[in-house]
Design a protein that fits this description.
Shape: globular
Number of strands: 4
Distance between the termini: 20 Å
Radius of gyration: 11 Å
Strand content: 15-25%
Largest sheet: 4 strands, mixed
């Protein structure tokens, strides 16, 4: 799996380590992110790039998250 979302004690760890749109899709990402509403996010990104449209969809989901997001 090229992305991972794990709940820690005080935040949720989000790791995006793959190509956006190919290995990491916005739909799959959103589905997993929805399980962590109201929890602060710590996001790590290591991606060679990919689809601008998928990347924007992921960005918009992170921006709309209802708790602090740190990248």
């Amino acid at each position: 799996q090229w992305f991972q979302i794990r709940a820690a004690a005080e935040h949720v760890e989000v790791r995006l380590f793959g190509e956006i749109g190919w290995e990491i899709t916005a739909d799959r990402f959103a589905g997993e992110l929805d399980q962590h509403k109201g929890k602060p996010l710590r996001v790590s990104i290591n991606s060679p790039g990919g689809s601008v449209f998928e990347g924007l969809a992921i960005y918009n989901r992170l921006k709309a998250h209802d708790a602090p997001v740190t990248c």
